[in-house]
Design goal:
By secondary structure, the protein is α/β, with parallel strands linked by helices. The chain contains nine helices and nine strands. The strands form two sheets. It has a six-stranded parallel beta sheet with strand order 4-9-8-7-5-6, sandwiched between helices. A three-stranded parallel beta sheet has the order 1-3-2, covered by helices on one side. Helix 1 links the parallel strand 2 and strand 3. Helix 4 crosses helix 9.
Length: 287
Amino acid sequence: AQQGVPLLLLTADRPYELRECGSNQTIVQAGIFGGYVRWARDMPCPSDEVPAATLLSDINYAVHCAITYPRGPVHLNLQLRENLAPEMGPIRDALPGTPGADKASVNGFRTACIDTADMARWELSSAPHALYLPRSAASPPEVPREVLEMLQGARSGLIIVGSLHSKTDIAAVEWLVSALQWPVWADIQSGLRTCTSRSWRQFGVPALDQMLTSPHIAAGIRPDLVLQLGERLVSKRVHELVTRVCAIEGCCKHVVVSDAPGRHDPSASATLIFNCAPLQLAQALSA
């Protein structure tokens, strides 16, 4: 940690039901490295109730934390049940009521956890499930090639604006809307709900949240790229729209632009995460 060496620590752990109950070969492993790691995650037991995209999102973020300044170790603590070997049959030594412990069980996984369009696209690609791009140190900042290619290749883009924390970012979003000329929706935390600029009057879709209450209208909204400026969306319906078109149907790419620390991809649907403020993106595109 003190040398800043990127390191991914994978530790095997007992399942939830065998922790802190006197079970053999069990210690408290979650958080065992304390503040010496850049990020830590206590991973659930393998289960078809957890979408595979969520686990890929965890792995992508772990690698990002390990190799991005300040570089260092990252800890993934993996809960595992018997059987560890890929054999059929019930889970061994399981407590009564444990999923897959029934003697009649073949311990088979339902495929719903991997049968999504974005998972199919990932399996056929050599790219990570989500690509993290650090902010540019250049002045003026440069737009990474990956971001430019997605913006230029979009034919029916949609801008959604999450929480913004400065007037300069708000002004930058207004410029981006004018430059891209895409429909735009602003979350309640964005500070843009009362915007009266010409671009906002022309491209703003203030009633998108209400429109999505109609299944017929919602089904017809199919952008090929969602550009999210800022983090944390409050609207559940807009969040579900992004999840549907990006993760389930796979007809859309999802680019998140935010300089906030941490991860802002609760649906694990982001294709590309660019760690910069909207102001920096606007400056780079206008240069």
